[in-house]
Amino acid sequence: MGFPGATGATGATGATGPTGPSTGATGATGPTGATGATGATGASGPQGIQGVQGIQGIQGPQGATGVTGPQGVAGETGATGATGATGPTGATGATGATGPTGATGATGVVAALTFATFMGTESDAYTGGASGSGVILPVTETASTSDASAFTLTPDGGVTVNQAGTYLVTGAITVEGGSADQTYALQVNGSGETAATYNSTAIPNNAGQVTVTTVLQLNAGDTISNSLISAGPVNLDSNAASPTGETAASSAITIVKIG
Fold first, then answer.
1. Can you give the pLDDT of all 259 residues of the chain as single tens digits?
2. 233: cis peptide before it, omega within 30°?
3. Which residues touch 158 (CB under 8 Å, ≥6 apart)?
4. Would you call 110 exposed, middle or buried from its count of C-beta atoms within 10 A (0-12, 13-18, 19+)?
5. Measured between alpha carbons, how far is 218 from 158 in angstroms, rounded to an integer?
6. Cα(158)–Cα(153) distance, rounded to whole angstroms?
7. Judging by DSSP bridges, how do beta strands 141-145 and 223-228 pair with one another?
8. Smallest Cα–Cα separation from 249: which of 139, 114, 116?
9. Which of 48, 54, 61, 182 has a 20 to 30 Å separation from 243 between CA atoms?
10. What angle do CA 163, 167, 169 make, to 5 degrees?
């Protein structure tokens, strides 16, 4: 085999062929690429204008009442409240009918009244009395009595009660004129005035009768007397009447047992 010959000269350039279509057919879509990172949030836009409130809807019908639940456990009793103010007094009811009259009780025994009046007829002058121990203006006789044992005349002209009790006592003396500023009293047991506002009185300057009345609680054996309890003088007058009507009494004592 021989060696290759030398390269021949380049032939002339051929005429240009027709131009092919400018765009080739679209190739198939490639696979979707990976999602890119989220971009930064943009700034908030301005707040929009508030919209007009819508019309209120029509109220729907009331639903049926549910079943009552079971009663709960009773709570502890609370503290007692303060007492309320007292209400006004109610009107008085009508008076009831009068009941029948009861049977008349048995007639009680009427107690006998014990009393006596004693008098004296002296027409002497008396002096030297004092409020602590008076000078007795004596009574010397019994004018009247319901019970001779209830009282006893004393030798000095007083009257002793023989029963304890409450007595209404009236004393009286009859004086001639000229005895002003003297004091006469009922005296108990020679002690002078026992209650100045009840059993003593001033003797007037003019002639007349002076009386004293008092109620005394006396023990058996207490003695009552008419007494001069100032210095005197006092002139007794036997020509006037006593409180019970006897004449010629210058000093008198009436005693009535009332309790």
1. 566 667 777 778 778 777 766 666 777 877 887 887 887 887 877 877 776 776 777 887 888 888 888 888 888 888 898 998 998 998 998 998 888 888 887 765 555 689 889 988 888 888 888 777 788 999 999 999 989 899 999 999 999 999 999 999 999 998 887 777 788 889 898 766 655 545 788 888 887 888 999 999 999 999 999 988 888 888 888 765 444 444 557 899 999 999 9
2. yes
3. 136, 138, 139, 187, 223, 224, 225
4. exposed
5. 14
6. 6
7. unpaired
8. 139
9. 182
10. 125
Question: What DSSP state is assigned to residue 89?
Answer: P
CATH class of 114-257: mainly beta
Tokens found for residue 103: 């049977």
Please compute, for residue 231, the number of CA atoms within 13 A of its CA located in the half-sphere on the CB side: 1
> Is residue 174 within 8 Å of residue 238, measured between CB atoms?
yes
Question: Domains of the chain: which residue ranges?
Answer: 114-257
